[in-house]
Structures are given as structure tokens and as C-alpha cells.
């Protein structure tokens, strides 16, 4: 169970570092595919998902034997953007303005909640047919993320926040 808590810690650390790695790399386009390149909501979602995925190689060795491991990871990387979007735009709807402290807290809370729901799937659900396809869906989500980084949509999630 300690690996779960360490995964949360390292996912948040890696996700936070991904806020800066694009600048640190002198705006290397390859680094920009996985790091935040601006202050849009999408780029913060990318930080959460990729911070989560950076922990995957170690976790696979320690937790990969669980039949629902990839399903739990899939659920986590689907929930991170949902929570970020709901919390970020929810509080802005209520308070009518952005707050950097809330933005940072939303990032961490979204990862934390996603992980805890993922833990429930990992440890408490019986293996399902979705577990078989979860690895493929994770790969597809990463590919979509890369495509949206290269060619962002013209919707609110891609607008740069002030």
C-alpha cells in the first residue's frame, strides 16, 4: 500500500515539474509534447496526466500483477481532466475570477481524488473485460494528447489564462 502513496507523491512532483520543463529545455518541441507550454487548462491537464504516466514504469513492476491495474490507471487519467475542469471552472463561476492558490490546489486535489478512486478499482473490483483493453486506451489517450498539443482546438480549454 505504501507504493500507492509514493505514487501520489511522485505523480504530483513530476506533474509540477512538467510546468517548467518546456522552458528549462529552451522550448524544445519534443519536451513540449509532454510538458506545459502555456497557461491554458489543457496544458495543466497534460501535466496531471503525464505526471501520472511517469510513475507507470515503476508501478508496473510493483502493481502490474493486479488484474485491474491498467483499468485503474485508465480511470485515473480520465478523472484527472474531469476533476480539473469541474473544479477550475466551477470555482471561477462562483468567484468570477482566477486565484493561483486555488489553481494549484485544484491540480493536487484532482490527482489525489483520481488516485483514490483508482485504488478502489485496483483493489476492490473483480477483473473485467475493460481491463484487457485499458492499456490500449491509455496509449490512445496519450496519442490524442500529443495531437492536441500539436494542433490545439479553438475551444475554452486551450485558451491561455491570465
Describe the structure.
The protein is mostly helical and 162 residues long. The protein has one domain (2-158). The chain has helices at 2-17, 21-24, 29-32, 41-54, 56-63, 69-95, 100-124, 129-150. The protein is globular, with a radius of gyration of 16 Å. The mean pLDDT is 93.
What secondary-structure arrangement, pairings included, does this model have?
Layout (H helix, E strand, L loop, with lengths): L1 H16 L3 H4 L4 H4 L8 H14 L1 H8 L5 H27 L4 H25 L4 H22 L12
Helix pairs in contact: 1-4, 1-7, 4-6, 6-7, 6-8
Summarize the structure.
The protein has 162 residues and is mainly α.
Instruction: Provide the residue-averaged pLDDT.
Output: 93
User: Mind telling me the C-alpha Rg?
Assistant: 16 Å
Helix content: over 70%
Shape descriptor reads globular
Please report the number of helical segments.
8
Largest sheet: none
> Quick one: how many beta strands?
0
Euclidean distance between termini CA atoms: 40 Å
SSE pattern: HHHHHHHH
